[in-house]
């Protein structure tokens, strides 16, 4: 859904409205309760907060554990540096504790490079 929203350049507000309209049955009940709690606790209801709550509710912990493990084991291998950088960036979204720390992120990226690349990168 996000790729579609990006392609048509929908605003975060429109994304939220359209995503909520797509919810059915259990997901509708879940969002009704979750959004009520968010309003009562003065949490801003936004596209970002909806996505975070939705992922927390509907994505199994094992999915994030697997993505984190993949990130931890990511190496350049036979990839070109640009391909490795793209893969690194994609997987970085699953490890926010690294994404927010520039030094840690840089060091992890450099450790994943082939030894022949690390001298000039």
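-> sequence recovered:
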């Amino acid at each position: 859904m996000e790729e579609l929203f990006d392609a048509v350049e929908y605003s975060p507000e429109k994304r939220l409205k359209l995503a909520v309209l797509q919810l059915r049955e259990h997901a509708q009940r879940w969002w009704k309760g979750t959004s009520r709690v968010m309003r009562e606790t003065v949490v801003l209801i936004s596209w970002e907060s909806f996505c975070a709550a939705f992922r927390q509710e509907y994505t199994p912990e094992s999915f994030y554990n697997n993505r984190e493990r993949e990130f931890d084991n990511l190496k350049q291998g036979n990839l070109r540096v640009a391909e490795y950088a793209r893969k690194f960036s994609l997987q970085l979204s699953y490890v926010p504790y690294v994404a927010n720390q520039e030094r840690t992120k840089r060091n992890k990226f450099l450790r994943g490079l082939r030894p022949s690349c690390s001298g000039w990168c």
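The mean pLDDT is 92.
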